[in-house]
Amino acid sequence: MLARMPRLNRGIALRPFQLDPGFAVNQSATFLVVAIVVGLLTGCLLGTQPSINGALGGAVKYPLQASLISFITGTSLLLVLTIVSGQFPPAFVKPPSELPWWIWFGGAVGVVMVSTSLFFVPRIGSLWWFAAVMTGQTITALFLDHFGLLGNPRSPINGLRILGVVLLLLGVFSIVGAKYLEYKRTHPALQSDEQASKALDDESGLGSE
Predict the structure, then answer these.
(1) Can you state the angle between helices 159-186 and 193-204, rounded to 10 degrees?
(2) What is the separation, in whole angstroms, between the first and last Cα of the chain?
(3) How many CB atoms sit inside 10 A of residue 24's CB?
(4) Which positions are tagged coiled coil (predicted)?
(5) Cβ atoms of residues 56 and 118 within 8 Å
(6) What is the DSSP track for the chain?
(7) What is the chain's alpha carbon radius of gyration, rounded to the nearest angstrom?
């Protein structure tokens, strides 16, 4: 009886490779749903980052100091996770000298993202800022996919994708317009659009930059 157990285990391990195509499609659809749910939850978590960084930026003298603190905490967490999981030090599947030059600059892009959010979010709010960032990311991803750049598989632009970008842009303009109208409504003494715009810039700290 015990001698047969390894054979039984091997049979169970091989079973997924013998499934009919219909079941495989269902599994792919399930995985897609799970990925979307996880992506939504991750997006919710990511939506808190500008506010957290903005609060940190207000607690230190210079925005770059807050950016440094933010990256130190992130790097420390990654270091602990890679050590605990036995994935440290990093192992390359090909020599680093054969990798494209741009592959090393992902962290630098993160510095730009965090540092700019540290400056702008406390002044304009996270919703306005994040809407603009999401639109910029979507437009960039559209062109990266269309031309197959930075290691992305090529996926030509089509009408639905363009429509999605247009809707995102409309969303950003709606948010900007809503904030402007709200400010003008709560400051009735500012009659002209020029006065309202200047006052909004002064209040946010942009007028003196």
Answers:
(1) 90
(2) 80
(3) 12
(4) none
(5) yes
(6) -GGGHHHHHHHHHHGGGG--HHHHHHHHHHHHHHHHHHHHHHHHHHHTHHHHHHHHHHHSSSHHHHHHHHHHHHHHHHHHHHHHTT--S---SS-GGGS-GGGG-HHHHHHHHHHHHHHHHHHH-HHHHHHHHHHHHHHHHHHHHHHT-TTPPP----HHHHHHHHHHHHHHHHHHHHHHHHHHHH-TT--SHHHHHHHHHHHHT-TT-
(7) 24
- 194 vs 87: which has the higher pLDDT: 87
Angle between helices 63-84 and 106-124 (to 10 degrees): 130
- Asked whether the predicted pLDDT for residue 17 surpasses 50, the reply is no
User: For residues 199 and 98, which has the higher predicted lDDT (pLDDT)?
Assistant: 98
**In Å, how far are 43, 114, 119, 205 from 57, measured between CA atoms?**
22, 10, 7, 14
Q: For 147-187, write each residue's pLDDT tens digit.
A: 999 988 888 888 888 888 888 888 877 877 777 777 777 76
**Cβ–Cβ contacts within 10 Å for residue 66, how many?**
23
Span of 39-48, 79-88, 122-131, 140-149 with lowest mean pLDDT? 122-131
Cβ atoms 130, 47 nearer than 8 A: yes
pTM: 0.64
